[in-house]
Amino acid sequence: MPVIAESKYRAPLFFSNPHAQTVFPTLFRKVRGVTYKRERVDTPDKDFLDVDISTVGSTRAAIVLHGLEGDSTRCYMLGMVKALNNNGWDAIAVNLRGCSGEPNRTLRLYHSGDTGDLDTVVSYIHSQKDYSDLALIGFSLGGNVVLKYVGERADTVKSAITAAAAFSVPCDLAAGATKIGSFMNIPYMKRFLTMLREKIRTKMGLFPELINDNDYDQIRDFADFDNRYTAPLHGFANAEDYWKKSSSKQFLARISIPTLLVSAADDPFLTPECYPFKEARDNPSLFLEVPKHGGHVGFMAFDSDREGTKGIWIMRLNGTNQIRITPNGIKAMNPRWSPFLK
Q1: Which of 7, 112, 140, 248 is catalytic?
Q2: pTM to 2 decimal places
Q3: Are 320 and 132 in contact (CB under 8 A)?
Q4: pLDDT tens digit sequence for 165-206
Q5: Which residue intervals define the domain AB hydrolase-1 in the entry (predicted)?
Q6: Among the options 133, 172, 226, 267, which is catalytic?
Q7: What DSSP designation does 232 have?
Q8: Domain locations in the chain?
Q9: Is there a contact between 289 and 259 (Cβ–Cβ < 8 Å)?
Q10: Is 267 a catalytic residue?
Q11: Of 66, 234, 293, 296, which is the active-site residue?
């Protein structure tokens, strides 16, 4: 059963269109009042990850991962961080490699299945901080990383992570890549490819003999990009090999900590393969909710606090606190365990 049969999320008037839900927050949502302190985390391959920490001196914290070509300053990241702080949680916003405003040192970048870097951050936080509870929250690409991490490391993750949540996740990467490359999603695809080209050009300045963007205009979709760049840079045979090995869906059955996955039925980037109903029905630790509307990392709500932190999803943490989690934030509730919908 942890498939939540009927979502109580209702899109605001005039925002039932999935593209409006996807685009409007990116263009118009402003989140103020978040102050970060940056810490640099060394990686085993002599590279680095920049994490931006907003602390209220709590014994509880959440590590938050952004989506493709995002960073810690995206509105959905700031909204989550602010809500965490407002409700007594420290927040650790991870900038994936090359996304912190400073190029990373190595030729490689980040990708949808890179749980190694997340584990590096988790290990760093446990070694440097003294948190009784540590949760993971991921959006889109970052959500796939979170789900893959808690699934593939199910035997050891219980000692490190209390709970996890993910939003708008293409847990079947091949299907998601096909969908975002479809005709209706051409504007999104062009935007992503433009942003990714800037990453490639940055790498060209650092490694001119190893990488170039010759004929980049011939790249039309993620299959083209991943075959040319992502796969060879990260040790995969090709795009299909990368998608197969990095998709989180194959690891969902092994998840053993309370984990919430929320993806809107009208998400323009997802196909039916990206909604793991069977996996959720078969795993008492995986809770799946599929609201009728919400777009991709949308789920807009015009709350009284004007920051969208009221939320609708609740995850109860290990006997110490209960939190309400949405793409717009987290609210502290009463002590108990296991996620449920309010």
Answers
A1: 140
A2: 0.90
A3: yes
A4: 999 999 999 999 999 999 999 999 999 999 999 999 999 999
A5: 63-300
A6: 267
A7: H
A8: 3-172+248-341, 175-246
A9: no
A10: yes
A11: 296
